[in-house]
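Q: Can someone sanity-check these two? First one:
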Amino acid sequence: GDAWTPTEPTQPAPEEPTEPAPTEPAPTDPAPEEPTEPTPEKPVEEPEQPTGTTDLLEGTNGRDVINGTGKADEIQGHAGNDRIKGGGGNDKIGGGEGNDRLNGGSGNDLMYGSAGADKLNGKKGGDKMVGGGGDDIVQGRNGDDVVDGADGNDRVDGGRGNDVMTGGAGSDVFAFRLSTGTDLITDFEDGTDLIDLSRWKLSADELDGVLDAGLSEKNGDAVLDFAALGTTGTVTLKGVDIDQIDAADFVL
């Protein structure tokens, strides 16, 4: 019986400490995984929300006043005489039926007046505006704008910047400011449309001097240069012969 007593306690002694040893580092594995997962997600999600957001704002068939946000808004006034301001961001604004007033605000905006006698004001940015049906006033203001009166007898004013102006159907008036840029009129019709320089306060003799010194032909287009008045700026009348242009085409 003495030979059995030393062998029995020596076998379980090394087995017991080796079993819990590998189990102790196991809880350390999830510790670094928990803080690393949420930290990269939060800063990625936050800047994506304002840049990809477009708010849809709709009026009723009555007389609405709608103010946009600082983001890119889509605003539909529907019927009625509406007043709509886009605010900041690159907005899409539709007036709908009625005599609407649309103000794009800052940003590069798209505006359509639709039916009615509408007034569109692009304000800042490079805007694209279409008056639609009716006798509209379409003003680009600051920036390089694309301004289209469409149907009706419209007043089209590109404002400052290098603008592309289209009167559309009807007898249209193209208005220019003293600080005009390099502007293009795409569809001037002699005897139907007019060029308004009333802000310049020119006399008839001064206008004759501008036409004599600054009217030229370039690539089949009539080009009017205002350098004779001591200011920069040109107006190109696409497809118009210079022999068709005289003082009767202007409003002083």
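And here is the second, same format, sequence then tokens:
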Amino acid sequence: REYLLSEPYLLAYLSLKECIADPDLAFIRGIIEPLIILRKNDSIDSTNSIILVDGLCEAEYHRPDHGYTITSFLVRHVPKMPTWLKVVATIRSRFIE
């Protein structure tokens, strides 16, 4: 949080306007790259880090008419993430079908 607040250009990438205009760039520049910098500076643990997405199935109720769903967005970006950054996503078992 402190790093994001100290670098205003990063907050610009995470604005709603930028996230809608270019979600890929917003995710890479606003989340992934800052995490990589924090890791290089030893500001975060040197072991694996986790991005947790809870209730992924609930996002299907808010599925957009165009563009990515949260699931397709993550599938697109996980292969590009650093190997030390893991994504854990949960779904409610009643939504497995």
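A (reply): Looked at the second one. The mean pLDDT is 86. The beta strands are 49-53, 85-89.
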